[in-house]
Amino acid sequence: MLLSYLTAFSLFCAAQAPLPAKNLSIFGRGMYPGDDSTYALLQDAGFNTVMLSSFYIHGDGDLYSGDDNKHPVIHNGKWVGDTSYLRRVAALKKTARIEILLEGRWYNQPPNTFDFMRDWIDSTKQVPGVVTGTGDHSTLFQICKVLKEVVGADAFCIDDESVYDSQSVIEMGKLAGRLKMHMTLCPYRVNDFWKTVLQHTDQKVVDAIYLQCYDGGTRANPGLWKAATGAVQPVYPIFMCRGAFSTCESSHNSKTVDEIKSEMLRFKADYPKMSGASIWQMADVKNFVINNCAVTNPASGSAKTVKAFLAQIKESLSTGL
User: Fold this and answer.
1) Average pLDDT over residues 4-16
2) H/E element holding 197?
3) Which of 82, 110, 147, 315 could be stapled to 153 by a disulfide with Cβ–Cβ 3.0 to 4.6 Å?
4) Residue 29's domain is classified under what CATH number?
5) What integer pLDDT is reported at residue 190 of this predicted model?
C-alpha cells in the first residue's frame, strides 16, 4: 500500500508547487491522521496552501506529529506513520500547495526541533543514532526527503520561537534547495535572526513569510515587518480565529471574521502589495463549532457548521486582495 502512495507522489514531486498569486492558507493542526470528512471539507473550502502542522524533531532523530507524541511518523529515514494520512494529503495536493510546519519549543520547554538542528548541522559532531551534517545520508536530509517524496510537501516552514540559531536555518535552506523544495519562515516578532536568515538564503528557495499576528505577535504588521527586514518575499499575516484555546471569547488575540476583515484592510493600507493571509488553525475552526459559539456567544460569529465557518474565514482573508 505504501508503495502505491510513493508511486503516486512521484508524479507530484518532480516540480514543486509555486506560490499562489493570491495565497490563502490554513494551518492544519488536529489533522494527523485525521478523517476523510475533515479533509473533504478543507478541500472544498478552496484554500490554496495547506500548512500541515505541527511536526517536531526529537533527539533520537525521529519526526513526530504534534497530534501524536507517542508514535513517530519518520524513523531511520523512512515513513512509519499512518498511510491514510498520505492518501488524504494527496487529495489536498491536487488543488493546494503543501507545506510542513516544523515547530520548536517555547521558552523553558525541553529541547526539540531547532535545538537538534543547531546541534546536528556540524558533521564533525558525534550524536548516538543520528547522522550529523546535511549530506545525503544525514538525518536532517533524510527527514526532509521523506517529507517531499512520501508526504508530497512543496516546502517546510520554520517556526523557531526560542533557539534562533541562524546558521543552522541557513543550512536547512540550502538543503531545501538541493531537494528542489521551498522553505518559508513563520516569525512573530522583528529581530536580527530572521533578517540574517533572509540575507543568506536563496530568494528562490525561501519564497514566503507567514507573520504571526496573534499572541506574542499581537502588534505585528506585515508591511512594517517587510520594511524592517528588507524582505523581497511576500509577507502574509496569520490570524487566530475564535474557538482558539476552546473558548468563544477572544483569547491570545483571536479574532472574529469581521475583525479579520478590518485588520486586512488596515494591513493592506500599509502594504498595498500584500497578496495573501492565513488562519491558525483547523482544530480551532472545529472548536468554534463544537462549543456552539454562534449560540452561546453570538458576538463571536454566526457560523454553526465547519463548512460555513471555513467559508467565512476564507472570505475574511480575501478582504482587500
Assistant:
1) 46
2) helix 192-199
3) 147
4) 3.20.20.80
5) 80
